[in-house]
Fold these 3 entries.
Entry 1:
Amino acid sequence: MKKAPEAKGKNKGFISGKWSQLVDNQNIAGYFFIMPWLLGFLLFTIMPIFTSLFLSFTSYNLTTNPKWVGMQNYVRMFTDDPLFYKSITVTIYYVIFAVPLKVGFALMIAFLLHRRSRAADFYRSVFYLPSLIGGSVAVALIWKDIFSINGPINSFLEVIGLKGVQWLGDPRYAIWTLIAMTVWQFGSSMIIFAAGLKQIPEMYYEAARIDGASRFHSFIYITLPSLSPVIFFNLVMQMINAFMTFTQAFLITLGGPLDSTLFYALYLYRRAFAYFDMGYASAMAWVLLIIIAAVTALVFKSSQYWVYYESKEK
Amino acid sequence: MNVKLKRTLGNLFYHIFVAAFAFLMVYPVLWMIFGSFKTSTQILNESHRLLPTELKWDNYISGWKGFGGITFATFFKNSIFVTTIATLGVTISSAMVAYGFSRIRFKGRNIAFACMMVTLMLPGQILLIPQYIVFQKLQWINTYKPLIVPSFFGSAFFIFMIMQFIQGLPKELDEAAIIDGCTRYSIFTRIVLPLIGPAIVTTVIINFYWKWDDFMGPLLYLSRPQKYTVSLAIKAFADATATTDYGAMFAMSTLSLLPVFFIFLFFNRYLIEGVSTTGIKG
């Protein structure tokens, strides 16, 4: 790395012309290769971000020109929009239950399957399947039928002597069908945990066993601390995703009943593409960004108390 | 003897538990697949039953007819078109950018790389509206361009993934190639590209099923049923027929997942292969 192979190459290679030397210059070559991303970044990220910030201070319905309204969108949101508060409450409720349950399940199953056997490989791929197909429209539509009044869930409840519930029609339960669907897709987190578990040296467990620790104790005192950076990573990524949940709610409950599943992203979509209230929806997007950034910062802050980095300790 | 028995029992218990749980996990999928062979009344009134009484393909035949005179052949063709072009674009561009970031030390590299990592965490909602407005101004609504063109500018996720892979290749290869007269461009095409095969395949696979399943993009940008991709068509089909023809909806749902099931079977094998090849290289 320190040998500066570039300089050597230039002198020794048979590209001698001035032109080819210029083209092979590391700055030119570097920007040549990252050009697709750089252009995309400017066109599809930077420009939209500033447009969105500008629009959030305007009233805009796509047909007439944006009209500057100052902070009005933000003021309206916080003082005069009960649905805004409703959608925040619903989303936070969902994040609080769905994310820890999903990550917890992923960790538990990854630990349970942490053994070298063909059966474990097979089980892992079976558990991974829901993650792979869970985002599809097909599965969302099936999910709706599973929780319908005559669906398999209620049939099963009847078999064990319980009374069926109107899962999708009752504001108390509808959101749980969506939480269940999210938790069902714990597979991809499980795969990440499985890779993390392989990194933990077997001798830690052996030492603990010699000291008389039970399986449970070694899980608490060895597995969890060693895996905490991976848990942290999973938690952050899953949280960001959960805040943006849209497709499932759109397909399964459409926000209902009684707005009990009106996720923030769904409400934003409705504002933008049903009411064409683009200025207000842009302001909502910025509030979402701030909420996500704040919550992520909080989790990052808390990480110093529970995430254990081996390299730091040395 | 006692210890052995205990262990066997423990093992048995473990397998019963895990297998039961695995069955529960895939039950919704099985219910969908088997449901596609049942009649609508069977699906509605005998939901406790998993297996169909007989294998009948009627649902597939009636479902394939689609809605509004457009068959699912059109929707599948549309999806295959969008998915293929977008995957091609994202793979080529991401591989290029990944090479640029990981092997060339140009000015501003660190800042550019940091910017890219930030976009990985940026919520898509914030870009949604302005992007829609731009595409609308460009008159790209109701074309596939909004679904395809952005793919050609790389994707931060795949760039990062391929970079991890390139960093595992020994630097000496580049040095030797330079001595042999390779430029930075020919190093990419002759040395790096042939060696990152597994990362390329992983990119193709993941992007393929992301694009195949994508619902929000088609929902926003495609309004003429003639242009619908499979995911959007299934939704429209369900809205139009679900109350009358559950079976057909189940059949088309199953069919729409077929490519993903197919990938699932190969994806797992490929992951293991990828890991073992990098193991040897490392």
Note: The two ends of chain A are 26 Å apart (CA to CA).
Entry 2:
Amino acid sequence: MRRYFALIQLWFIKALEYRAELVVWAILTLLNTVILLAIWISVFRGQTSVNGYQVGQIMQYFLLVTVINGVTASHFEGWRSQEVREGKIDHYLTKPISYPLQVLLADIGNRLFYLTLILPITFLVYYVFSLSFNLGTVAFTPLVIAQFIFLLGVGYLIEFSCAMIAVLLSFWFEGAEGLEHFKWITISLFSGFMIPLEFMPGWLRSAVDILPLKYMYAIPIQVIQQRVTLRITDFMYIFFFLAVIFFFQRWLWQKATAKYTSSG
Amino acid sequence: MSEAPIISIQNLKKYFKVYRKKPGLLGSIQSLWSREYEEVKAVDDVSFEIYPGEIVGFIGQNGAGKTTTLKVLSGLLYPTSGEVSVLGFNPWDRKPDFQRQFALVMGQKNQLWWDLPAMESFLLNKAIYEVPDAEFDKTLDKLVELLDVKDIINVQVRKLSLGQRMKCELIAALLHSPKVLFLDEPTIGLDVVMQKVLRDFIKAYNQEFKATIILTSHYMGDVKELCKRAIVIDHGQKIFDGDLQDIIDQFARNKILSLIMNDKINQKQLEKYGQLKEFEYPKATLLVPRAKAAKIAGQLLTDFSVADVNIEEPTIDAIIRELFLSQKKVH
């Protein structure tokens, strides 16, 4: 266990080395959140409620999107694929921890770092906006918290698995940049990241209802806002989907190791 | 040898499919629907065995298959065919028990974290290889002392010179005290002083830890100083495996006769004794057949007034060069 913790910790330490990047990310997060909230305030001007949301609830929604994004959004496929292409993963492959697990631990280190950066900024924005708007209160019952944390884990595993699949495919393809954009656009459109499900046109909503991506943003926020609670069918669907992508990754990894050419 | 080999390779083949792109825009457009692939035989039917504690030099030109062989031995590449055993394991099974017992150091690829001090990478390896605290402290102190890097292990790796980085790479690779060490061009790009430091270190490490080492290098100095045994590989095939001295006996056709003359003589007078390589009175250098070297030296002493005569073996670099040139003619 100590070796896993050491890997997570080193990626955290590495992230702390880039002080300028830290400031840029903090400003970006602040700017992004404030502008997003300002846009939605403008949309709600003159209206008390749109599609079942009051202005405070929609602001709460996007503040939660920022937090969830900080926890779950893995974006390593571009540079990791380049490493595969250039044969720079040799040292990972000779270590007594499997490569996918090293990638996972590294990403957890990165996620923890960004979460510590994003959380205080989000709370600051929440506090400032709550002075002028009723952002509502959230009833953090044990059931709600448990469901929310479970869904954060699910969201992370979906994001990570999709990124990892893109990296593994780069053992065959020349790059994963296209796959990274595909992942980002798909998740943005079908998860509730861009807009709440209630604002989507009927055909898009139908697609979202079928896909598991809604468990990444829309459903955890609805759980917090106590609009929904998870049913047994949700759990079954989630576990089935996670099992499918887990075994697909394992299968890809087995094929990829045989395919690796260790260029350079 | 009575001991069992620690590394055994039987009929190893590793072929790659390489895409040959036609040049220019037209070639790029054509490649969208039709690509030409060529099979490259990086390693072609190579067999050898290495015994515990040996340092073996793996010699070959660029693209000969040295690094590919090391990559197969360390489990990075799956072979096309053949049998490989390292420490009793199939390397490409990548079993953690196997990975804890060897290290691969590549002169052209880093394992150190670029933006962090080398010490952070050492601590990470300590955790990954589960090295106990006391053992880690002892090994690190010893390696730091041997390589004289006490002052630099807390400096960001990117701020270090190539030689300093290579020293730290070696430490990172050796912290778990591997039984088998694959060194791929560890002295590449280093100045002669640093090359000597690393050679001395590798020799000391082999003696102290009884580690088995395979070393690939373009610098014959590395091989000459460290390895009793050499394996020469060319175009993916083994062309020699044995003592370095045997390479000289087997492939050095000539000896070098260096003369210092007392009297002025004509260049043409010397040419009948052998191949005149240099002539600048009073010095002359002749290449003569090995078997006749002593006899020709005697004749020269009789026929001319010679102040000094010296019979030398050609340098190992020259012999290897000659060996590769002769192989080139075959291919």
Note: Chain A is about 70% helix and 0% strand.
Entry 3:
Amino acid sequence: MDLMHILYGVSFILFGPLIGGIIVGLDRKLTARMQGRVGPPVLQPFYDIGKLFQKERIAVIYSENFWVIAYLIFIVATGMIFFAGGDLLLVIFALTLAHVFLIIGAFSSSSPYAHVGAQRELIQLMAIEPMVILTAVGMYQVTGSFFVIDILAYGGLLIFVLPGVFVGFLYVLTFKLRKSPFDLATSHHAHQELVKGLTTEFAGPTLGIYELAHLYETVMLLGFVYLFFGANPLTGIIAVILVYIIEIFVDNATTRITWQPALISAWIVTIVLGGLNLIGLYLL
Amino acid sequence: MGREIVIPFGPQHPVLPEPIHLDLVLEDEMVKEAIPSIGYIHRGLEKLVEKRDFKNYVYIAERICGICSFIHSVSYCQGIENIMEITIPDRAAYLRVIWSEYSRLHSHLLWLGLFADAMGFENLFMTAWRLREHMLNDMEETTGGRVIQGSCKVGGVRCDISNDKLASMSAGLTAIEPELSEMAGVFLEDETIDMRTRGVGVLSKDSAWDLGAVGPVARGSGIALDARMTGYGAYEHLDFSPVVISGGDCYARCRVRVEELFTSLDLIGQAITMMPDGDIEVPVRGNPSGEFFSRTEQPRGEVVHYIRGNGTKNLLRHRVRTPTTANIPGLVQMLAGCELANVPVIVLSIDPCIGCAER
Amino acid sequence: MTIEKQTTVVIPVDLLLDEVKKMHDAKYRLVQVGCGQFKDQIEINYSFERDLVFSNLRITIDKETQVPSVTDLYHAAFVYENEIHDLFGIGFFGISLDYQGTFIRTKDKHPFYNTINKEDSLRPEEEGS
């Protein structure tokens, strides 16, 4: 890892939320247009987070602040490792750890909504982890390395050899982006049976930190998508945009489903698409 | 696992349009028991009848509900007219049908939107409410009010709709019908909606009858129960048959409402074609003496207005049994044993209107 | 315009359960239970319907009378009976789901009972109309 890549990693601290905020802003605008509304300004996510940080820090149980800050730190660390070209496995495990902190944060509050939301988040982790790990394994099988640097240096487009893994990854990306039909644990709008689910008890700056971490996470996950097209930067960026538009479209064309079908379908997709793809690679 | 959590559901909850409180006893995500309680918005409107002139009380009767308002005033006026043996002009009866069915259209579209929203389908929610605007605009143009019309009075109606306007309303509804069909298709055929509604909150035909369910809840359980079948007002001249779907789950109740949109369009069409010319009101003299149970069909089901007068201008008693009250026992039964994620869908599937239920 | 035919049968309180049972056995649907105060008398109407035929059972009681609950026959009546109890203060015994006066929370207890003639029925400015 040279200085250049370490610089990339450090610049993620600054550019992560900037790019993430613009992506989420455009997302909200496009969603609104799909629903026949005008929608908020593109910069709305920044206004929102800015306002959250101006609010008084109020919590029933203060330890949740600690857990949410830990969540942010680990998400940022994960993103830095990723953009510095580090080990994919490390990225995945650090990401899981970050989510565990978030879940503990939700459990530490006394709200029943947050508790049920946290239970659902645990189930979601179970649903998506296998596919995320398979993604890393698939990339290793093709390129012979778990390092993002080496995967990017691989000559061909990974999408051609890993189509099943790619589709499977898109499937679990919907969980991670908290979009319908898999916005079970918490969603971007409060109209669900759990009010705001996981994040019900977070308020003011704590919620701001959570939102900020979500922006970092969005950018990093889209980075994963980019890896599949890494050989050609232009194709990569176009692919990332297309993938995000597809996610918005799916978000707008489905209801929120219950946790059983979400878990089962995620595993079926993992086994069928991810598994078959890897077996195919192994045999060829 | 197996720990019991009590989730307080409402009275202030984002998914609930109105304040009902349910204590949900959960075991993991399974609802073991649901205990309803109301009383957050009791206004004692029924009591006001003793202090207001019975003709003026129409406006209070109409304000019992903010959505099915017009049909409340129709029921009340019809009760008074039956006690006083007033025959209202035919044109007034037909106009009441038109406004009643417009109310039903806008109420059902409102409900469909809320239902989609409860399942997390924001786009469909926006679509339903956009189509609802058409109905509200027609109401506003003909009566001056979007949700509270105030156009019904004892002895007829307060304002007429010109025949030109009737023709353009008819044309407008024909034009919007394809859009309604397209939306109906999504509600009835979308995979994910199917997953959330089919087999959820089942109420069998027998228990629906025993628990006194009315309206779309009863019709979704396969009971042909619709107060319009009694032929009140001008309904006796119109070709009408109730939408009855067996199944008893949320999907069936959703389907009843979706299909009733088209029944209502058809009824409005018939009423416009058959609209007789003539007066729209008759003079009312004297005061009501006697009693009557006036039954009409609201979007949410059968409503009963009990009216009793003693020959003075203040009535003795006015009691309203609203459809939501009749559907609460059914709701409690549907909720037992369901999943937490399905609670909003089931609660909304009876189309609760607590403002009505408490008056 | 047709006016619906409605029958009302006045029965004594002790026959209430028997009569309601007859209706239940004949597969009538309970439409509503409604209450009204007329002078010192309380009237409770039990409305039933089957095949578009609407009929009522009526009991006339005073405030102290305890009324047997019909919830064993028609479970749905718990809504109406709790409501009547909370608004008029009529006691029902044997309700399957008894809220003990917390179904409708009102500031004053039993707000619908005995308030008719207590105050002038019209406010001064309305008297002339």
Note: Chain C touches chain B at residues 1-4, 6, 27, 29-32, 34-38, 45, 47, 52, 54, 56, 74-76, 78-80, 83, 86, 99, 102-106, 111-112, 115-116, 121-123, 129 (CB under 8 Å).
